[in-house]
From TrEMBL:
<keyword id="KW-0812">Transmembrane</keyword>
<feature type="transmembrane region" description="Helical">
    <location>
        <begin position="6"/>
        <end position="39"/>
    </location>
</feature>
<feature type="transmembrane region" description="Helical">
    <location>
        <begin position="46"/>
        <end position="68"/>
    </location>
</feature>
<feature type="transmembrane region" description="Helical">
    <location>
        <begin position="103"/>
        <end position="124"/>
    </location>
</feature>
<feature type="transmembrane region" description="Helical">
    <location>
        <begin position="74"/>
        <end position="96"/>
    </location>
</feature>
<protein>
    <submittedName>
        <fullName>Uncharacterized protein</fullName>
    </submittedName>
</protein>
<feature type="transmembrane region" description="Helical">
    <location>
        <begin position="130"/>
        <end position="154"/>
    </location>
</feature>
<keyword id="KW-1133">Transmembrane helix</keyword>
<keyword id="KW-0472">Membrane</keyword>
Length: 155
């Protein structure tokens, strides 16, 4: 009976030791589970933060892209309009210069022709009046006078 009692005690101790080991293993499993949950939560939060940052960066890139496209597009259109306006102004200036040159040339030719004509008319008129007056009124021989003057100057 003593042997049976000792065996029962030993079996009881073994059961207690096994129970303690099971409890320790259970505690380790719970701790590991808690660590896994904490790591998953931390990783999840980090992933969410990273995804939010990626979304924010994406929105900023889209906004910057739209602004760049709109601003650069507007600047390009404005520069194009300015170039067209400058081109039109240059064409108008060239046309005005050509018209001015043509008008000035025509006016210049007309003025020269008119002035030369007036000078010729006046000179011929004066010569005619002088010659007619000298010949008719005073009876002077013009040809003889010219020959006399020429001879006196040459000699």
């Amino acid at each position: 009976m003593i042997v049976v009692g000792v065996v029962v005690v030993v079996v009881g101790v073994v059961v207690v030791v096994v129970g303690v080991v099971v409890v320790v293993v259970g505690v380790v499993v719970v701790v590991v589970g808690v660590v896994v949950v904490v790591v998953e939560v931390v990783v999840g939060v980090v992933l969410v933060v990273v995804e939010v940052v990626v979304v924010i960066v994406g929105v900023v890139v889209v906004v910057v892209g739209v602004v760049v496209v709109v601003v650069v597009g507007v600047v390009v259109v404005v520069v194009g309009v300015v170039v067209v306006v400058v081109g039109v102004v240059v064409v108008v200036v060239v046309v005005v210069r050509v018209v001015v040159v043509v008008v000035v040339g025509i006016v210049g030719v007309v003025v020269v022709v008119v002035v030369v004509g007036v000078v010729v008319v006046v000179v011929v008129g004066v010569v005619e009046v002088v010659v007619v007056r000298l010949v008719v009124v005073y009876g002077i021989d013009i040809v003889g006078l010219v020959i006399t003057v020429f001879n006196s100057v040459v000699v």
